[in-house]
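Ticket #4471: complex job returned nothing on first submit. Input attached below:
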Amino acid sequence: MISMALLELVDLHVEVGGREILRGINLAVNHGEIHVLFGPNGSGKSTLINAIAGNPMVRVTRGKIIFKGKDVTGLPTYERVKMGLGVAFQHPPKIRGVRLGELLQKMASKLAKERDVAKVASAVNMQGYLDREVNVGFSGGEMKRSELLQLLVQSPDFVLLDEPDSGVDIENLAVVANAINQLCEANVKPSMRVKSALLVTHMGHMLKYISADRAHVLFNGKIACSGRPDEILKQIMEHGFERCAECLQKREEA
Amino acid sequence: MRLEELRRKAREALAKPPAVGPDLDVSTFRLEAEKPREGLGGEVLERARMVGLEPSERDRAGTYLQLDHYALIEKAAAGGLEVMSISKALESYDWLADYYWRAVGVDSDKFTALAELKRTEGYFMRAKRGVKVDFPVQACLLIKTPKIAQNVHNIIVVEEDAELHVITGCATSKAAEGLHIGVSEFYVKRGGRLTFTMIHGWSEGIDVRPRTGVVVEEDASFTNIYVNLNPVKTFQSMPRVLLQGRNAKANLTSVIAASGKSFFDVGGAVYLKAEETGAEIVSRVVAKDEAEVVSRGLIAAERDRVKGHLECRGIILSPTSAVVAIPELEARARDVELSHEAAVGRIAEEEIYYLATRGFSEEEATSIIIRGFMDVDVKGLPPMLVAQIRRALDLTAKSL
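Support reply: We reran it on our side without changes. The output follows.
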């Protein structure tokens, strides 16, 4: 029985370009859990992902990031990745001249893992893309599937998914969801699952396919509300994010 | 008569500085080198392999190998192909006068002048009419003796509807100092095709001054791939390609990895002198340490219905290195389509971070990005040459 949280954020304050974006985030994701992060544009969702992954463009000014029981707040990204962290980008950059297949092979050999790259690629309908330059000329949906393909090869213990459903057409939504389920061991008995995810999404489409354990609403740099994903989603659908703001305000006053 | 005239012009140009790039005092280089007693060996051979020499001559249609001032191997192994030293060719063929100093001016500067007055060999290659040579011909020019000037004059003639692939490597031992002047005149006749791949492995003490002129006739094409692997002292080259006949095409691609205190002034100029001609010039430059690279490109459209595109990208790896991109387009006719794009800067942080999330350290990520950056399109080359170029680029990316 593993009781310790896989990822824990303690009073996390984060600045981007000298401006405070996250103002004290507390969050714990246990082994085998999928957490969903909702929030309006500009609420700090991507900044939170960047902070957890260690993007040097964001700066932690206070608080801690604890991953697998270790304080990783000052650790460079690739060290966190070595420990089992994975990231799917919302807007991944183009890497010119580097073929997707070539990158996947490099990743696999780096991790000293045997991977049938072609087989994994066909699982996300990307078999025809291995000779393409990474993210060059990819559509929105292709980029998302390429991100998941890379994660499937990495097979991390904890994945950060930044809007993996945006720009994905209906047909491929199930493909993306399947890949996420595979990453999170949905086919394993709940009590045996160890892999976890933090999923950022704008809307709730994804939740039809993925059974998430907990949802949080990020508003103005703070977690305004946490609860069961279906309930939270219902609240947002009915009242928008305004209700969260009120909720947060009340808590701050109290 | 003409030879005397050429010599007179050369003598008059002996003090003439180059149009661009640093001037040199050519009197500091020795014009004599002893004939090598033994063949290739040790470090020079190793460097020769690096720039593409296949010592077994397997899968090569011919070989020209020159050490210092002497041709060691001059051999054609395919029908309809000739490979020999320029001195032998000039003795054998009177008609070669029609190609000698016709694409490059003998009085262009002191370097062309010296190549005429103190020529130290060079090669002649000819693919006869209609002959398609599948395997590449290899040429390798090596400098071993310190402080010499190697002044070669090369001529390649690809006759009507013939096809020739040449891979040429130039190298020196690491510690060498010296001057390499390479006059190259290429003629691609109607319907012919020439691809010329050049891989350079110089050393920090070498000054290099190639002087290249290419004449491409109707429906013919010329592809030039240049890859530089090692630091030099100074390098200046601006091949000049004249597309003389209708539907002639040229592609000039160069990859320059400049490190140490290297200075490169490198580029290419294509003149679209007939209708429906087209040119593409692509350059990729990576500069680090205290290296400086001036990357030039010129496409001049002189007739209607012509196209040209120029692309220059540069990466700066250190604050003390420099890349200067000078793209030029000239339109002297109305119905032309010329464009260029140039981008110079450091590697995007975002790309490094992206690869870090895939488990790569900053150093590994940089190397992956640079190798990708150098991955120029080399379509139209025989697969073994593509593999050769890939190997050279792998080596370069690793060394940076």
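The two ends of chain B are 51 Å apart (CA to CA). Closing as resolved unless it happens again.
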